Amino acid sequence: MTTTQQNDALAEMRETIVRHEWDQFQRTNNEGGRAACQGNWPVFHQMRLAQFLTWERPLLESYAADLDEADHAGRNLVTEKYGRMMASTAPAEYAANIEPYIPRLDADRIARQEQVIARQVAWAADFRSRYPKLGEAMRVLTTAEDTATATSFETYLRGELGTYSPTTFGLYETMIRERAAANPQRNITEETLLNTVRLGGFDSLDEAEAAQ
């Protein structure tokens, strides 16, 4: 397979994953009725594809398998992601109606996730300090800032990582560790936001920042 064919295959895999998540998102019940964002495919596609453009083939393949396995097992990873976020935003409801029905994470997995989350929150804070206008358009940063109607970057990430299989999380953890060890460090938040603004028609973060 040529390099072009490999790149095309990766692009197709990413699109398939985004579409699979969208399908699960459509089956996610929201308290108070269907959420407006559940009808906004262009924004969903832009945001999710921007993230997956930072992932390499093994991680993409593993997460695609997670989504397939969830379908076969009658699970919905997108629903579970939002459910896990409610541990912070609606703790009583989470304890009563969600926690008993989703896979429990052991202490080692939680500790490893928190290391990843701390690294990514620091990267997000660094990004916001350098691109304040783009940062203002992001979620609030930390779980301490969560409210019943606003979910932070940290809480969202914790919810998402909690849905990954052991294999997928291990690959993701390695990706973050390698980016942190690179010289210079590769800030995955910045990479994701660069992909986001490029998909939105800008050439660079500086151009997008100036346009805000």
Automatic annotation (TrEMBL):
<dbReference type="Pfam" id="PF13526">
    <property type="entry name" value="DUF4125"/>
</dbReference>
<dbReference type="InterPro" id="IPR025191">
    <property type="entry name" value="DUF4125"/>
</dbReference>
<protein>
    <recommendedName>
        <fullName>DUF4125 family protein</fullName>
    </recommendedName>
</protein>
